Amino acid sequence: LTGAQDGSVRMFEWTRPQQLVCFRQAGNARVTRMYFNSQGNKCGVADGEGFLSIWQVNQTTSNPKPYLSWQCHSKTTSDFAFITSSSLVATSGQSNDNRNVCLWDTLVSSGNSLIHAFTCHDHGATVLQYAPKHQLLISGGRKGYICIFDIRQRQILFTFQAHESAVKALALEPSEDYFVTGSAE
């Protein structure tokens, strides 16, 4: 799966030089992040205008429409994570009301899909990591802060400053004993 500054999203197969599917054409908002769910049957694309769109991967048409498309954040959606069987999605980004980390239910109508919004990260959340064993979300922000959320209780557990500049990357060790952060500096 490839995403570009021009907003296009294309899917390729290892042995074929041509694209299999074009999910989005050029002329859309820049792609900020994209992932497959753990089953590999869905892909999601976050963009610079605050949207998250999700497609079924096994499409037979050359330009399929997303089965879900939400404006998750009012300014940008910078990252997201499929939670559990991908019916729950977490997003990070920047919103005018500082609700910069959100939980969404893909199985309910779009008007009721926002399950919880965390008010955190002044100036926006840049990255997100899901820790499934502990049911935690870890987010990094533009000012170098890390927030850890318990998604079962829907509350912030810890907040601390890890860097002087924006957190650009988070990685979780497989046993979930540690996580590492990388920053713009």
UniProtKB/TrEMBL annotation:
Keywords, ordered alphabetically: WD repeat
InterPro entries in UniProt: DmX-like/RAVE_component (IPR052208), WD40/YVTN_repeat-like_dom_sf (IPR015943), WD40_repeat_dom_sf (IPR036322), WD40_rpt (IPR001680)
Pfam families: WD40 (PF00400)
UniProt-listed Gene3D superfamilies: YVTN repeat-like/Quinoprotein amine dehydrogenase
CC per GO annotation: RAVE complex
Source taxon at top rank: Eukaryota
The WD repeat ranges on this chain: 160-185
Biological process, per Gene Ontology: vacuolar acidification
SMART domains: WD40
UniProt keyword Metal-binding, yes or no: no
Transmembrane spans: none
Protein's UniProt name: DMXL2 protein
Species assigned in the record: Atrichornis clamosus
Lineage: Eukaryota, Metazoa, Chordata, Craniata, Vertebrata
